[in-house]
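RETRY 2/3 - previous attempt timed out on the joint model. Re-submitting the same 536-residue input unchanged.
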Amino acid sequence: MAAPDLTDAVGLVSSGEASPLELVQAALDRLEALDDAVHAFVTVTADAALDAARTATEEMSAGGPHGPLHGVPFVAKDLFDSAGVQTSAGSRVLAGRVPDSDSTCLRRLRESGAILLGKVHGHEFAYGVTTPAVRNPLHLDRVAGGSSGGSAAAVAAGYCAMSLGTDTAGSIRIPASVCGVVGLRPTYGRVSTAGVIPLSWSFDTAGPICRTVADAAIMLTAIAGFDAADTTSSQVPVSDYLSDIDRGVEGLKIGVPSSYFFDNLDPDVESAVRRAIELLNGAGADVREVSLPLAETAVSAVFAICLPEAAEAHSETFPRHADLYGDDVRTYLELGVVRPGTEYVRAQRLRAAIVEAWRAAFDDVSAVLVPTLPARAAGVDQTSFDLPAGAEDVTPAYLRLTAAASLVGLPALSVPCHRTDDALPIGLQIIGRPFDEATVLRIGRAVEVVVDAPRLPLDERLTKRLEASPA
Amino acid sequence: MSEDRLSTECVAAMAEMAGAPLPDSRVEAVAATLAAFGPLLAVVRDVDVADRPAARFVLEPWGDR
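RETRY 2/3 succeeded.
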């Protein structure tokens, strides 16, 4: 059986209907049956997870939960430091690296009572959008997206209800969209990145990937907040992400860009996203056009800033271990070194102008709705999409609609919005005001209600594995 | 010369000037990737920033530091 949603798992544990040990054992049984086809995991910490689950089960007998996520299993991208467990960023460069302490996010989840099942693959050093090691559980011949591909695949495969991912230019939202789950990039500075291996300092964020919006809200509550160990961490107080989540969208002003974000889309993506927006309008949202000047330049600015920032982040390890990097990451790092400094500064000036454009848009609306991606899950060997305006390479295609929120540092949620006859999931992206994750989540919850996107079945090869599994 | 047509010799020289010389075996891959990304990066170079603000980092506008 797939892991229960986080909200349900918390309820099952607190009511005594399921023990932490039962939840963890069920998760381990499922990944044992499926993961040599999905390949989400780098490291399964089964013994530690079972020990923690036994302790958590005893604690329930002795007096009840010691945190809001007591006994609920989770996974973390292999970019988050984990005490005593290898953290290698999916790279041979860091093979065998075992941190002494947890990243702040991982520590906060453990302090909330959650139990780590193991570490999951991301694209090497989070520098890519496909995570080649991982297969999409809904269609094993398709990518799981990236860079947090293992995080999304673990949730989509039903191993657990929550996972930690990171998002630099789209790395939570891209895999969430193609795997049919919910992924939230928080406002830059909202969630600590202390103990997370960096890719690009002025973009990097950490956030939740779950099956439902309410679950993402619960997980965000556990990990958000100021952290003195992270120099980019914000002191803005953490909101209550759950109290208004079911309020609906009646009267809420929601913007739809008048240009760029709906250009050159897979027709099925466009129709699913526009249908979701119409349904929100029908539910009482005040949907209106917004102008976002320079939107078409955001992805270029992201590339121009990320290439040199990543090259600098790797400036100590790369010259010594260049041969250990994968070909694609190596090439990006080499390219980052040769770009002119003036290009980086110009991109930062452009970034400031785009920030002003979004600030002006938020004078009129509380959030902006756009597709997460222009296309659905690519085939594992696919290099480009055939879109109405012609072929487009997978990497720039997957980044062109996620880049803006990253550039401006805004919260952005991807929530499924496909229809019952769609064979592959489609994501709707909700971009909100800085630190207004509560409204983003509220709209996301409304999308779940009005669109009612079905949970697509696992690839039938996985279903057969489950039928043959002894557990 | 447009960046999508930079020669491998030119890419090798750029790396040399940046203090990170590329092995011969890597020059072709970097030149090809630069050709692929050239049009994207050219957008930054070509955008008119005459009346744009100075460079600054993203957290500053939200004023909470």
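Residues 4 and 35 of chain B are 4 Å apart (CA to CA). Closing ticket.
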